[in-house]
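Write out this protein's structure.
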Amino acid sequence: METTTQPRNQVEAAQIRIDEMRESMMRGERITAKQLAEARADLELAEMRDEAQARQETRAREAARRAELEALQQRLASAFDLQVIEARGRELEKALDKYLAAIVAHEGGLKEIRDALMAGGFLPGTIPGEIAGLPASDGNPVSIGDVAVRSVLSPRGTILRMVSAVIDQHFPRGTS
């Protein structure tokens, strides 16, 4: 395939040839109609090649732009596939349901243990070294010997802190 400069150089060479013929005629040299016709035909052919090359390059650039635009459209479509986003939202809801169910079970178990300890008369400090404390509404742990379990005071606050941390990780403050 010819380079971009080759047809342009051919046009310039053909034009120079015609100009030289004109100068030769002015000096009195004889130029035939056939020679002039050939030179003009060479110029016209070179101009046509130059134009064809320019059109091919334009078409190639347009095809590349269309391909780039199509690739961006595909990326846009896949990046904003609402079905994928909605599916991730449903997964998050299920995970939150499991998390909250675990908190409810945890808190229920602690309440049962606290109630059993209270019903048995085991108040904090009645058996030194064995029972260090019972959970209160302030979140103090239930402790028996070396085992201590803390109450989850605020599931809402815990979840909001987790969500906030993830959002901050993906969308740092000051960016949009």
